[in-house]
Amino acid sequence: MHTPSPLVRTRRRVTVAAIGLAMAMVAVGCSNLEGQPTSSRSVVTVTTTASGSDADAHGFVVFGGGARCLGTDDAMVYMRTSKSALVVCQSETNRLYYRGYRISDGATIDLYEVERDAAGYVAVNSADNARYVIGSRGFQLTQNGSVIADESAVEVGPPMNTSIVLGSADAMGSTSRGYGSTQPDAITMGSCANAISRIVWHNWGAPESYGSGLGCVQVGEMPRYSLVASNVGPCHGVLAYRALAIAGDVARNICDD
Predict the structure, then answer these.
(1) CA-to-CA dists, residue 195 to 2, 152, 209, 241, 246, angstroms
(2) Average confidence (pLDDT) over 140-152
(3) Which of 146, 162, 208, 209 has its CA 20 to 30 A from that of 45?
């Protein structure tokens, strides 16, 4: 019996994703977190490893899609260690999810209870009382408060600074909302004419982040606006996107530092 990797889901089951998708979780013939074998069938060992050219904005293009986002969803972070590959994704409805892959035998796991924290991201496997903590240097798996695995990153991408904020509330005025916060789902300067809600951001933390939201109108259908946040740098003492372009207009300064 071998020591399990933190990226294995060993029971065949269907997980209903929080984003409304059903994912088949296939048993792969190795030990689970409790160390019990789940299948006696033979397993073909996967020896493929990834390099920088094996990943894009959606995760790894190798590993049979096991460490890649679904459809066109963006990777908030992807990571490869000597034993594992993983990706944290953001859906079109702004929900986070985690996909992990064990390199030795192709075991996979999908988790849909994911949150940001100061270090990066935390994915929770409630059924096993386990937490996957993904930081800039690697990831750690804890179960029932004990460290089960601690793996150092060989490759990490895209840029993983999720603490970047959008401009400055001080610069935009006392009636503004959303500015000065991370990935705001709404922004306004105090009136309907400059309010945008239901914003979904992509590639937050990269040099440019792209968003889409609905404009405010008194009567009729709300128009959809595109947003591009750019010019990352210091802004009133924090790291921020200092420029914002709305609906294709010229980017405006939202920092005033």
Answers:
(1) 56, 43, 19, 18, 11
(2) 94
(3) 146
pTM assigned to the model: 0.50
**CB under 8 Å, gap of 24 or more: what pairs does 152-157 form?**
152/81, 152/82, 153/79, 153/80, 153/81, 154/80, 154/81, 154/82, 155/50, 155/51, 155/52, 155/55, 155/78, 155/79, 155/80, 156/77, 156/78, 156/79, 157/52, 157/55, 157/75, 157/77, 157/78
- Residue 234, burial from CB neighbour count under 10 angstroms (0-12, 13-18, 19+): exposed
Q: What is the pLDDT of residue 188?
A: 94
Q: For residue 37, give the DSSP letter.
A: B
178: exposed, middle or buried (Cβ count in 10 Å: 0-12, 13-18, 19+): buried
pLDDT band of residue 121 (cuts 50, 70, 90) is confident
Cα–Cα nearest to 197, from 182, 183, 214: 214
Those residues with Cβ within 8 angstroms of residue 206's Cβ, 6 or more apart along the chain or in another chain:
158, 159
Contacts of 61 (CB under 8 A, 6+ apart): 54, 55, 68
- Tens-digit pLDDT profile for residues 209-230: 889 999 999 899 999 999 999 8
The answer to whether 36 and 52 are in contact (CB under 8 A) is no
- Pick the range with the lowest mean pLDDT from 102-111, 125-134, 138-147, 152-161: 152-161
Please choose, from the candidates 197, 222, 195, the residue with its C-alpha nearest in 3D space to the C-alpha of residue 212: 197
pLDDT tens, position by position, 48-86 = 344 445 888 899 999 999 999 999 888 888 999 999 999
